[in-house]
Design brief:
Blueprint: H1 20-27, E1 30-34, E2 40-44, H2 47-55, E3 59-60, H3 89-102, H4 105-128, E4 133-134, H5 135-140, H6 142-152, H7 159-170, H8 177-200, H9 206-213, H10 219-237, H11 239-254, H12 256-264, H13 269-279, E5 287-291, E6 295-297, E7 300-302, E8 307-310, H14 312-315, H15 350-367, E9 372-373, E10 395-397
Parallel strand pairs: 2-8
Antiparallel strand pairs: 1-2, 3-5, 4-10, 5-8, 6-7, 9-10
Helix pairs in contact: 4-6, 4-15, 6-7, 6-10, 7-8, 8-10, 10-11, 11-15, 13-15
The structure holds protoporphyrin IX containing FE.
The site of protoporphyrin IX containing FE has 27 residues, from helix 10, helix 11 and helix 15.
């Protein structure tokens, strides 16, 4: 390859991966790519290399490094630019440890019946309207923000405001700067009030638990912790899961045999969710890392100051790791995909994301066994130019 290819690559169609993933995995595992900003970066596409870099603390997530390429579409560092993921080193470790103690698998398990009620409610509402409906806007986008509200202890009556703030803060194009600033300010003010309310009357929620763990900490720092964590969870956990719901349903309906197999054997739901996470051809940008010293990857020395992008999705299709990687096998086991990353920054919300995806899928299978795509797969369109990949709409009927 003479000139560095432009990144992100184009997918041939909404559910197919770009051919460059396989080409680079085979021929050029450390590839120079050109970003929209004009900067160059290195792209890793092999499973072992992606794991190596994500696990290595010398590759930092710090987006404000002086020599860092301007890799993301917006100046704030894109979707992972706030909360834990914009921190590195000791600060990040301390945040992770604290939030990890409160955001436990046990807490998520306890949330499952409420997530199920949310999914049932949203699917019922969708069914009362006329088919076809857009699954992304009817179920995909509301459910994860409602789940995060539940996690944080935000009352149900406030969750639509939360959804608005989240949409506005995340959107890079739909809202003007004034609206974005106003949403940001309202969101911050709401969380300060929520923190005070939880201090006065703790509940069984993440904010109350965080507050109990940092009791005695200076008020300003406490406020910053709650604000940063809530924003980080919303920013990293809303759009990712919302898009994944749409992608999951379209991947499963794209081949009727998959849907029928799930109807015949509901035990497949768990492994099927892992397989759609692995198989996702629209993951978005990939996670940039900056090199704080020279490191060798795939036998090549990478100089200090290099920007490296790990394509988890390309790694998830690596034949060296996954037998018949280009086949979707609903019962694939084991399935050590890296859709949630690995290492110190791996997804802190992965058990919540899994619970949401499994629950939505079960509700759809139970309530709408005749569900089908209302347009040919070839007509599904990707959302272009965003940090988190997804489909514009997933029109369905039943
Ligand atoms: C299907 C849905 C999801 C996917 C595919 C996903 C994917 C990821 C990935 C790949 C990372 C690692 C980024 C990196 O290495 O730099 C990550 C980090 C993160 N995720 Fe998720 N995520 C999902 C859902 C969620 C949910 C539901 C939450 C919380 C409510 C969440 C919160 C976070 C946070 C806070 C981080 C940053 C962790 C850190 O830097 O220590 N994610 N996610």
């Amino acid at each position: 390859m003479t000139e560095a290819p432009e990144y992100p690559f184009r997918n041939p169609s909404a559910l197919e991966p770009p051919p460059e993933w396989a080409e680079l995995r085979e021929g050029c595992p450390v590839a120079t790519i050109r970003l929209a900003s004009g900067d160059e970066a290195l792209l890793l596409t092999r499973y072992d290399d992606v794991r190596q870099v994500l696990s290595d603390p010398r590759f930092t997530r710090q987006l404000d490094a002086a020599d860092a390429a301007r890799v993301t579409a917006n100046e704030s560092g894109g979707v992972f630019g706030s909360g834990g993921s914009s921190m590195s080193g000791d600060e990040h470790r301390a945040w992770r440890q604290l939030v990890g103690k409160a955001f436990t698998a046990k807490r998520v398990t306890a949330m499952q019946p409420r997530i199920q009620a949310m999914a049932e409610h949203l699917v019922e509402e969708m069914v009362t309207r006329e088919a076809p409906a857009d699954l992304v806007s009817a179920v995909g986008f509301p459910l994860p923000v409602w789940a995060i509200c539940d996690l944080l202890g935000v009352p149900d009556s406030d969750r639509d405001r939360f959804a608005y703030w989240s949409d506005t803060m995340l959107s890079m194009t739909r809202f003007g700067q004034e609206e974005i600033d106003a949403a940001q300010a309202e969101f911050d003010a709401y969380l300060v009030a929520l923190t005070e309310a939880k201090q006065a009357r703790p509940g069984d929620d993440l904010v109350s638990e965080l507050l109990s763990m940092v009791a005695g900490l200076d008020g300003r720092l406490t406020e910053q912790l709650v604000l940063g964590t809530a924003k980080g969870l919303l920013v990293a956990g809303h759009e990712t899961t919302a898009n994944m719901i749409g992608k999951m349903v379209s991947m499963l309906l794209a081949d009727r045999g998959r849907w029928e197999a799930l109807l015949a054997d509901p035990k497949l739901v768990r492994p099927a969710v892992e397989e759609v996470l692995r198989y996702d051809a629209n993951p978005g940008f990939g996670m940039p890392r900056y090199l704080s010293e020279e490191v060798e990857v795939a036998g090549e020395p990478l100089p200090k100051g290099t920007t490296v992008i790990c394509s988890m999705a390309a790694a998830n299709r690596d034949e060296r790791q996954f037998e018949r990687a280009d086949e979707m096998r609903l019962d694939r086991s084991p399935n050590p995909h890296v859709a949630f990353g690995v290492g110190p920054h791996s997804c802190i919300g992965q058990s919540l994301a899994r619970t949401e995806l499994q629950t939505v899928l079960r509700v759809l299978l139970d309530r709408l066994p005749t569900l089908e795509l209302a347009v040919p797969v070839a007509e599904l369109r990707r959302r272009e130019g965003l940090v988190v990949g997804g489909l514009e709409r997933v029109p369905v009927r039943w």
